[in-house]
Structures are given as C-alpha cells and as structure tokens.
Design a protein that fits this description.
single chain; alpha+beta; seven-stranded antiparallel β-sheet; five-stranded antiparallel β-sheet; 29% strand; globular; binds FE2/S2 (inorganic) cluster; binds fe (ii) ion
Length: 374
C-alpha cells in the first residue's frame, strides 16, 4: 500500500503554504559528487542496476490488443514486449535463436515474429513454431529454441520488465498507487535524445525551485515560485506543483475540494521513470541512458478523459502541445547547458538545498541500490 496523501490533504497543505509563503522542506541538504555524472564506471553500474530492477517499459495501454508489441532497447538490451492471445503481457530478449538477428523493430501488431534473415518464426508466447527447410537442422530441439523470456508484469497501468532480476524485487511494485486507469488512451508517442546525463534529466522534474527563473513566461504565470508538496513512497517520490488558481479552494469546504486542473502531480518511479499527471493528460517519460552525456527520452501521452468527444480530445492535444513547446523545451535547454557546465570542471560537488529533497531521495536511494545490488 502506498502512503501518499489524499488530494484533500495535499490541497490543505498547499493552501497553508500559500497563506504563509512557505514550501515543503527536507530535513537536510544533499551533496552529490559531480564525478557521478562523469564516470563511465558509475554509468555501467547504474545500467546494471536498471537491468536488475523491475523498471517500467511502457504503459499497458500501448499494448491494447493481442499481438500488439513494442521492441526497443532497455538499459542497452534489445527487448520485445508483446500481448499474447491469452491477454498476458510477455517480454523477450529480442534476438533470433538461429544467428541472433533482431526479430522485431519499432512497434505494431502481429500474429507471429518472423525473423527477416532466414524466416524462423516465433509465436506470441515466444515458442519457435517454424524453421524453413527444417531438415537442415537434424538434431535441433525446437522446444528449447524459443525466444528467451524475461520477467514482465502489469501494475498500475504500466508494464514492468526485470531483465536480470526478480520482478517481485522485495515487493517494490506493491507500493505503487493507481497511476494510469483502464479508460486512458494513448494519443502521442515520441522518442528523442538529449545531450545530458540521465540523472540530470530526471532532476529537472523533481523540484519547483526553478519554476520562476527557468519558466518565467510559460509555467510561472500559472504556477508559484518555489511551492511544492514533496512525498516519498519507497524509493519513489511524488512532487506536487500547484497552479495559482488552486487558491480559490480556500473558500470550498474540504470535503468538496476537487483538484482537477488545479495541480500537476509528478511521480518519480525509481530509478528512471517520470509520470506527470497534468490537467488533461498524463505523460509517461522513460529515461534511457545512452552514454554518460546522452539520454533517450521515450514518452507516451495519455488522455485523462475517457470520452472520445472530438472537442474534448482537441483540448487535451492543445494542453499537451503547450507543455511540450514551452516549458518542456526550456527544461531541455537547461538540461543540456548543465551537462556542458559540468564539463567545465568548476564543481566537484553539487549542493541540493532543502527545496530539492526529492532529488536527495533519488541520489540516496540510488547509492543504496548500487551498494546492495538491488
Ligand atoms: S538469424 Fe533468424 S532465421 Fe537466421
Ligand atoms: Fe522545469
């Protein structure tokens, strides 16, 4: 069970902060060695960790029907995730058991995976169904030459994959709140690369201390200067970014307060996934380290409204476009500029203040996970 506060409690805390001009504070500051953003050994250890932990691969909604699949690299490993005829989601290492060719690329819907090289064919459950001119492989046991499976499970509207580990790693998935409901549909997917370490990209989501300075003409006119509610659940965090218009709830009795459109929840699912629940849509951002100073961002945008009404859908798309073209672009610029600043060699340690407690929680959790290996 998660121990996140109810919307009403979060609202109450925000209203108190507005009145007093305060924000949530962590107990301590955090000092992070800058070498952790520049060391190839550190990155290798982090990628190993990403392979051992259960990590979100995509929203369940991306695999809506039997045969729907996504093939991509996760922590540098080519993986396919597919929904079977029985409705179950399965994950496999994306490599033909003949001579190793990728058996799928991108995404789509299929009845079987047919290797382009010589045509070996695999069912959606990974079993090898057909070898062209099979008499050329007299002693080959088809039963042991299916695609190599990796553990996968669906939770909270997401598909989790644990490549080299236990999908039920210490029950961490049991602490998740409901994140994406069955009525939510995907309306956009993108993939892009940013020239920055994956942890710098992650940090950009986790505090509101930068809102006024970085997003002066975009988010700040609607939001606050440094006003957040910050919660932790397990190794994860939730950071709440209220809009100024939430102040009107002060006049509404607590039990009748609704937060829709009045705040953004950003969930950090440790270690590398951000889920921003905005007023009309939810954005799932998967951060894949490509190299020490390069990150691939895989994003899925889901509508928060179940309705297929075209006017409402347009409002959702407008909302998403505003965020992408304004604030998110500013965050990208800043992220890349930080990476270049790191290269200057000016800093050996970064200090995260008491407004940046969700980042401290991330680094503390990452240090612990790297130390124990899980
Ligand atoms: S490598 Fe796939 S059929 Fe030969
Ligand atoms: Fe930002």
């Amino acid at each position: 069970m998660t121990i996140l506060m109810s919307d009403q409690k979060v609202t109450q805390r925000i209203l108190e902060h507005i009145e007093k001009g305060t924000t949530d504070l962590s107990d301590d500051i955090w000092r992070e060695p800058v070498a952790n953003y520049r060391s190839g050994d550190r990155l290798a250890a982090e990628i190993n960790l990403l392979r051992r932990l259960p990590v979100p691969f995509c929203p369940s909604a991306a695999l809506a029907e039997a045969g729907a699949y996504i093939a991509r690299e996760a922590a540098g490993t080519p993986i396919i995730v597919v929904r079977g005829q029985d409705g179950a989601v399965r994950a496999f290492r994306n490599a033909c058991r003949h001579r190793g060719m990728l058996v799928a690329t991108g995404s789509g819907c299929t009845k079987a995976f047919v290797c382009r090289y010589h045509g070996w064919t695999y069912r959606l459950d990974g079993s090898l169904s057909h070898i062209p001119h099979e008499y050329g492989f007299p002693d080959l046991d088809k039963a042991t030459h299916g695609l190599v499976s990796v553990p996968a499970v669906e939770r909270s509207g997401l598909v989790f994959v644990a490549q080299d580990g236990d999908i039920d790693n210490a029950g961490v998935l049991d602490t998740l709140p409901d994140l994406i409901g069955p009525q939510q549909k995907i309306f956009a997917r993108t993939e892009s690369e940013t020239e920055a370490n994956w942890k710098i990209v992650a940090e950009g989501f986790l505090e509101g201390y930068h809102i006024r300075s970085t997003h002066r003409d975009t988010f700040y006119p609607y939001g606050f200067d440094n006003l957040n509610v910050i919660e932790q659940f397990g190794r994860n965090s939730r950071v709440t970014f209220p809009f100024r218009r939430i102040a009107k709830l002060a006049d509404v009795p607590p039990e009748r307060r609704r937060v829709d459109g009045l705040l953004t929840y950003v969930y950090h699912l440790f270690p590398n996934v951000m889920i921003a629940v905005l007023s009309q849509h939810t954005k799932v951002v998967l951060l894949e380290p490509v190299s020490i100073d390069r990150t691939r961002l895989i994003t899925f945008a889901l509508s928060n409204i179940g309705s297929s009404d075209s006017e409402q859908q347009e409002a959702v798309a407008r909302d998403a476009a505003f965020v992408d073209q304004t604030g998110a672009a500013e965050d990208r610029d800043v992220t890349c500029a930080i990476q270049r600043g790191i290269g200057s060699g000016a800093n050996t340690v970064f200090t995260y203040g008491r407004f940046e407690g969700a980042i401290a929680h991330f680094h503390r959790s990452l240090d612990a996970a790297l130390a124990t290996g899980s």
